[in-house]
Amino acid sequence: MRTTITIAEDVYAEMERLRREEGLGPSEALNALARRGMSTRRSRPDYVHASADLGISVDVSNVAEVLDLLDQEG
């Protein structure tokens, strides 16, 4: 496919470096850079909630009672 694009200076510099080092044409170098970028996508790490023992036990099955308990201690 043929199209016209605007390439940022840093991307152009990397494309030119790749062209010189590997003897590629502009399209080949740009495609190689794009494929390299696509293959290094990383998924977001799983969220792990940090918790700490506060030394108290509260039955949270009834939210209203927990809120009343917190209001009393404040």
Short description, anyone?
Helix content is 53%, strand content 0%. It contains three helices and no strands.
Give the C-alpha Rg: 28 Å
The strand count comes to 0
Largest pleated sheet: none
Q: Give average pLDDT, whole number.
A: 87
CA-based shape: rod-shaped
Helical content class:
40-55%
Question: What would you call the structural class?
Answer: mainly alpha
Strand percentage lies at under 5%
Query: Secondary-structure element sequence?
Result: HHH
Total DSSP helices:
3
Low-confidence stretches: none
Query: What is the end-to-end distance?
Result: 68 Å
What would you say this structure looks like, in words?
This is CopG family transcriptional regulator. With 74 residues, the protein is an all-alpha fold. The protein has a domain at 9-39. It contains 3 helices and no strands. Helix 1 (9-22) crosses helix 2. The longest helix is centred in the first third of the chain and has 14 residues, at 9-22. The protein is rod-shaped, with a radius of gyration of 28 Å. The mean pLDDT is 87.
